Amino acid sequence: MTRPLRLALTAAMIALAGMALAQESGQEMKIGTGFKQDPNLPVEITANELTVDQTASTATFTGSVLAVQGDLRLTADEALVEYSQETNAMTRLTATGSVVVTTPTEAAEAARAVYDIAGGKLVMEGGVLLTQGFGAVSGEKLDVDMAAGTARMSGKVRTVFKPGETGGATQP
């Protein structure tokens, strides 16, 4: 057996053991459940600067951006908000630069996030790291259905579990 294959099998066994331990201790292996959110709640945004383009129906927030919707908090260097000209309702928020999304139970960081507000979908891309109380999962893309409270991590997914520990996440 080659060394890379042996390492891959060992990592898989450790991950499976961690999942089994988490299930035995009453913790479920679910990612994204903390992102369950009512997309109809108001969104409050603060930033250092705001530029509005009425023709394009966009607003660009720059510098220390903070967007809050219910228990969901998003911080980034910049956020582009698209809105409907008919209703003035926000339809999409695209955040770039040191993006961090937090809830009371989970936190995710990435290079970019797109929040389809009307559809209740959040997509994070670029070096995504999702942490929960019992562990962490990393990958290239995180798709979250905020109405259902479900998520899917894809692209070079990696996770580390520490058997016997229930607190604190381990960064992959």
Considering the chains and any ligands shown, give keywords for the structure:
mainly beta; 10 strands; lipopolysaccharide transport protein A fold; 10-stranded antiparallel β-sheet; 172 residues; 1 helix
Q: Can you write the helix and strand succession as a string?
A: HEEEEEEEEEE
Number of strands: 10
The domain tally reads: 1
Give the amount of beta strand, in percent.
over 45%
CATH-defined topology: lipopolysaccharide transport protein A fold
Descriptive overview:
- It is a single chain.
- The protein has 172 residues and is mainly beta.
- It has a single domain (30-160), classed as lipopolysaccharide transport protein A fold (Sandwich), CATH 2.60.450.
- It has one helix spanning 3-24; strands at 44-46, 49-53, 58-69, 72-83, 90-102, 106-116, 121-132, 135-145, 150-154, 158-160.
- Strands 1, 2, 3, 4, 5, 6, 7, 8, 9 and 10 form a ten-stranded antiparallel sheet that branches.
- The longest helix is centred in the first third of the chain and has 22 residues, at 3-24.
- The two termini are 25 Å apart.
